């Protein structure tokens, strides 16, 4: 192989690796846990949680109590087809042991990028009343069995 062809292949590989490893911008106040950890816990002022690992980045936004049990979930990857995910097994729990079950995830198909509203059935007012924290669990995203997102809401 001549030197020019080798240089072209090396440049192409570098560009491809850069494009695949670039992460999407994160909202102010979010954190990214160690790769593969599957959970994210932030300070009470942040509304965005990010889990990066298992070849998929998951970003969950919750506007707070005013939005009730409704979240915006974004998924990004360069290697996994995300169209099969429906989050029907998602669970929202509070520190008192109560849980709400997910409604179908309102996200259009997108292959490697999906975003949509995830909301939960049940009495949100009772669920949030007196709770100190809530925890959203998403199962089976990428190579991570469970991704846990937690928000402190009480005193």
Structure explained in plain terms:
This protein has helices at about 5-20, 125-130, and strands spanning about 40, 50-55, 55-60, 70-75, 90-95, 100, 105, 115-120, 135-140, 145-150. It has about 160 residues and is α+β, with helices and mostly antiparallel strands. The strands form two sheets. The chain has a five-stranded mixed β-sheet. Strands 2-3-4-8-7 form a five-stranded antiparallel β-sheet, with no helix packed on it. Strand 2 and strand 3 form a beta hairpin. The chain is elongated, with a radius of gyration of 18 Å.
List keywords for this structure.
155 residues; alpha+beta; five-stranded mixed beta sheet; elongated; disordered N terminus
Sheet bearing the most strands, described?
A: 5 strands, mixed
Number of helices: 2
* Number of DSSP-assigned strands: 10
Question: What is the H-and-E element order?
Answer: HEEEEEEEEHEE
Measured distance between first and last alpha carbons: 67 Å
Tell me, what's the shape?
Answer: elongated
CA radius of gyration is 18 Å
Low-confidence stretches: 3-45
Range of strand content: 35-45%
Spatial sequence of strands, sheet with the most strands: 1-10-9-5-6
* Estimated helix fraction: 10-25%
The residue-averaged pLDDT reads 77
**Secondary structural class:** alpha+beta
Oligomer: single chain
């Amino acid at each position: 192989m001549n030197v020019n062809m080798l240089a072209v292949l090396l440049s192409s590989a570098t560009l491809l690796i850069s494009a695949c490893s670039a992460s999407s911008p994160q909202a102010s106040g979010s954190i990214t846990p160690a790769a593969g950890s599957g959970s994210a816990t932030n300070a009470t002022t942040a509304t965005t949680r990010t889990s990066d690992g298992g070849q998929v980045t998951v970003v969950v936004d919750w506007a707070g109590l005013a939005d009730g049990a409704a979240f915006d979930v974004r998924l990004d990857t360069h290697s996994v087809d995300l169209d099969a995910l429906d989050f029907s097994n998602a669970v929202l729990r509070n520190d008192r042991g109560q849980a709400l079950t997910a409604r179908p995830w309102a996200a259009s198909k997108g292959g490697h990028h999906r975003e949509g509203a995830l909301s939960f059935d049940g009495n949100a007012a009772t669920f949030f009343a007196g709770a100190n924290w809530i925890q959203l669990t998403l199962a089976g995203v990428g190579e991570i069995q469970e991704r846990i997102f937690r928000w402190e809401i009480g005193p």
